[in-house]
Amino acid sequence: MSPLLFRKPAIFAAFPELIAAESTRHGGVSLPPYASLNLGGSTQDNPDAVAENRRRFYAGLGISADQVASSHQVHGSEIWQTDQPGREQGHDAVVTDAPGVFALVTIADCTPILIYDARNKVAAAIHAGWRGTVSKLVAKTLSQMQESYGTKGEDCYGYVGTCIDECSFEVGTDVADHFDSVYKRFDEEKQKFFVNLKEANASQLRDFGVPANQLEISSYSTVLNNADYFSHRAEKGVTGRLVAIIGRKS
User: Which InterPro entries does UniProt cross-reference here (predicted)?
Assistant: First the structure.
């Protein structure tokens, strides 16, 4: 991967009105262990460096920080539905139908999911760690979009983003017991389970009726591609944060 600030999911390329991207760890000013494009304000990084990183990221997308809607995430299943930018507390999904407002979530191993209802012009950004995945936050968000805007699966395009991969997400029974067998495998040698978060979230999009050809799953891993992405697990908790963002231009 070239050292770019972000990748744009190909699934959204057909919509010129849309801005959707997932950041990398490249192109910022933060020093190790946050090198270099740390976008997370909750880290112990220099706040001035984070602010400059955010300025660069938003400028690269052609937007500004005052157009962003985000929330302090708590690994829960609350959804913030908004037509205004700003910062909330306690939500792990952000939904908007307002042009010029961009839904954003922060990640460092958890799964980012971006959704666009092309008919009703609604965008959603979701942060799903294992708790958000088993609480079916993607399905809950889609249901709320259906109730509020008339969203249908056939009109949605979805991106399941870069996160910890199945061969790196080693868990005990305390976590594995929450997942259906199709999303986990048991390793006899390690006596541990391995969970596939990408597939567990992608299935919620498919179950809502999102066609397979309107769904993209990132081929990257925060762990295996740690040179390009921050990983909380691979870097033992001391690392930067990535973001995933989506919204319509003004």
Answer: Cu_polyphenol_OxRdtase, Cu_polyphenol_OxRdtase_sf, Cytotoxic_necrot_fac-like_cat
